[in-house]
Every structure is written in structure tokens, then in C-alpha cells.
């Protein structure tokens, strides 16, 4: 049955791959974007997840166009990599505000309709970096690690209402972010991945589509790594 799906940060990279996969499965899919051009063939709503009012307006637009959100995929995120000694407080808090507090804003708004319906799926996109850490990414890792505790707390809170909350934690993936790396940086990171390559966005999307599906109704509070083994054991 076609569901109303909202993917924050779904205009490019992993988020767009998730949107295309869920649309292909028959869902009605909306995405938020902050900058750039919106993707074709999807309901696209401009929204900065650091602004509560914009989040609320985005949900209102989606509700008007395709009904209450039944599946939320929280994918919007930023990075601002610096060594700790060079990182300002603004460098730290701005990443937390988007990657962690932004998910809080979206999830809180999504649960309004889900609680009334006594069903729903929330999928949070974390990162292998949040599980294993990475030099120069203390702010990013902290935000992504925080999502695990946040999602598992929600899974306990909302489970009795038929709402599942899960985390998908991608490793380094073939996106614009990874393409900005030098060949030397890329080679060094690939050496740490047991499968010896980067993930494809479609591989991450497949994991998200599964935990958001009816077949995954008894999975909640899980952290699913899609990282080629880079963070195994964490």
C-alpha cells in the first residue's frame, strides 16, 4: 500500500537514493532540501532543519499534498571537519544543531500523526564514524553517536504505539562528499574497509527501505551498519 514518506536532506547523495528506492516501491515520497535545485519527480520542500518553524511548515506542506507522514527518514546532515585544537565552539554546535537536534525536531513533529495512527516508521541516518570515531571529526562523530542513544530511547518510548525507530549507519559512500577527497585520502580510508571499496548510495537505500517496510515490523532500536565492515565490533 502506498505510504506517505518524508526524507529530510533527500535532494542528493544517500538521501536521494533512498527517495528513489522508496518511490520505485510505490510510496508517495517527499524530500526536504536546503540549497541547490530540488530533484525532479519528487515533492520537494525547502527546509532548514535547524529552524523549528521551517520543519513544521515542511510537514504541513507534505500533509496537504500526500497525507500524514507514515515514514520519516532523517538524513539531513552537515560536516565541518577540523582538529579539536582548531575547532571553534560554533564549529561544534552548528554540526550538532543540524545532525542531532535537527533529527529531534523532525521526529517530534512526525510523531504527532504517527501516535494518532498508532503506527509509523522512523529511520535515522547515522554514520560508521559515530561508532568508531575519526580524527578531525569530533563534532560529526558526536552528533552521529548521539543519534543512536536518541533513536533507542524513542524506540522504547514509542514501541507500544506501533512505531519503530531504527538507525542505519553508512560508512564512506560514493557521494559528493567522498569525491572531494584527494586520491591519497581516499586510498587511506579504503584500506580500513574490509570489503576494500566505498558503498554505493543504493546499498544504503536498500537497508533503509527494508527497516521502513512492513516486513521489518518487529525490528526496532537496531543499529544497522552499511559500511563494508569498517566499524564492526562497535
UniProtKB/TrEMBL annotation:
Known EC number: 1.1.1.100
One GO MF term: 3-oxoacyl-[acyl-carrier-protein] reductase (NADPH) activity
Domain Ketoreductase: 3-204
GO BP field: fatty acid elongation
InterPro entries from the UniProt entry: KR_dom, NAD(P)-bd_dom_sf, Sc_DH/Rdtase_CS, SDR_fam
Root EC class: oxidoreductase
Keyword terms, alphabetized: Oxidoreductase
Domain of life: Bacteria
Signal sequence, renumbered to the chain: none
Pfam families according to UniProt: adh_short_C2
UniProt xrefs under Gene3D superfamilies: NAD(P)-binding Rossmann-like Domain
Oxidoreductase in keyword set: yes
Family: Belongs to the short-chain dehydrogenases/reductases (SDR) family.
Name assigned to this protein: 3-oxoacyl-[acyl-carrier protein] reductase
Organism of this sequence: Streptomyces spectabilis
Amino acid at each position: 500500500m502506498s505510504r506517505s514518506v518524508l526524507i529530510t536532506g533527500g535532494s542528493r547523495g544517500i538521501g536521494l537514493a533512498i527517495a528513489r528506492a522508496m518511490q520505485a516501491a510505490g510510496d508517495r515520497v517527499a524530500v526536504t532540501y536546503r540549497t541547490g535545485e530540488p530533484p525532479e519527480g519528487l515533492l520537494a520542500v525547502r527546509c532548514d532543519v535547524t529552524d523549528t518553524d521551517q520543519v513544521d511548515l515542511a510537514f504541513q506542506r507534505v500533509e496537504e499534498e500526500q497525507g500524514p507522514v507514515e515514514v520519516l527518514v532523517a538524513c539531513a546532515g552537515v560536516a565541518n571537519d577540523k582538529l579539536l585544537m582548531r575547532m571553534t565552539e560554533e564549529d561544534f554546535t552548528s554540526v550538532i544543531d543540524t545532525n542531532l537536534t535537527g533529527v529531534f525536531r523532525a521526529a517530534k513533529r512526525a510523531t504527532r500523526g504517527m501516535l494518532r495512527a498508532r503506527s509509523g516508521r522512523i529511520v535515522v541516518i547515522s554514520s560508521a564514524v559515530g561508532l568508531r570515531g575519526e580524527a578531525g571529526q569530533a563534532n560529526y562523530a558526536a552528533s552521529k553517536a548521539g543519534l543512536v542513544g536518541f533513536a533507542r530511547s524513542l524506540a522504547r518510548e514509542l514501541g507500544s504505539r506501533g512505531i519503530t525507530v531504527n538507525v542505519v549507519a553508512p560508512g564512506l559512500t560514493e557521494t559528493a562528499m567522498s569525491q572531494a577527497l584527494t586520491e591519497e585520502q581516499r586510498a587511506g580510508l579504503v584500506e580500513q574497509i574490509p570489503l576494500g571499496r566505498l558503498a554505493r548510495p543504493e546499498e544504503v537505500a536498500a537497508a533503509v527501505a527494508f527497516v521502513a517496510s512492513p516486513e521489518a515490523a518487529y525490528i526496532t532500536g537496531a543499529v544497522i551498519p552499511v559500511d563494508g565492515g569498517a566499524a564492526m565490533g562497535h
